[in-house]
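2 proteins. here.
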Amino acid sequence: MRVLAAAWLLLALGASALAEPVHFKDCGSEVGVIKEVNVSPCSIQPCHLQKEQSYTVNVTFTSSTESQGSKAKVYGILMGVPVAFPIPESDGCKSGVNCPIEKNKTYSYLNKLPVKSDYPSIKLVVKWELQDDKGKCLFCWEIPVQIES
């Protein structure tokens, strides 16, 4: 377990060194406050996401509630319709957030956003939520992206 924790810490430190803060829209963080969203690499917005590449997402947030666990949900919004977007790990407690989550504590959530080759080349909005164990959003943010070949 310590090796896993050490590996996450190294990944988080490496990702934060290369991460680019992005301008985001808060889309309904009910029980948390987003401090910063980083996507790496993303040097300009909209983020240009290349197919067959994986992007690191790091969100620093402060919880305003207690929760035993957390679950991430990611969507691509196309013409106003959210379409579920698979991520490698939906359990926030396995993505850098030390659970149980405590009120008024700041956390660093870290995950990957893989862009599959069969995704269409299109502009869309990525919506990323992390929900507590009652289904309320610890954070919810949106950014525009461009998927490219």
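next one coming up
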Amino acid sequence: MEEIVNETVTIDEIKRFERNYNAELARGKVPAKVQFEYGWCLVRSPYTNDIKKGNILMEELLHGGSQEIKRDCLFYLGVGHFRLKNYTKALEFVKGLLQMEPNNHQAKDLEQVIKRKMNKDGLVGIAMIGGAAVVVGGIVAAGMALAKGK
């Protein structure tokens, strides 16, 4: 599962899917499959703005696509928000998928990856706060020692 959340696409791949999407858009209506493929590509981009745009395209498909498209969109919205470090939102989408398909192994694996990252970041955050408190405490103690010495 780690490879899916860390996988990126090339600029050439993004341009190819973008051309397909824009050609359909120029015709007046983008088929769900084309929109999904472009969103899927953008979610795997190395660029934050592309990932955000991919998430928007995926969210649009949630409101009118087939069950299969909705399932895939929920999964890749989980991936996209994970890549943007929106772990809570990523987890919401994965849980939505698990409500549809409780035995979906990919969704269960993604849920575990997200939870591990949330726990790791939580511990890192606590360690940073603790480290900052030690530094501030050291500065205060040094200031008090200097003040006493005068």
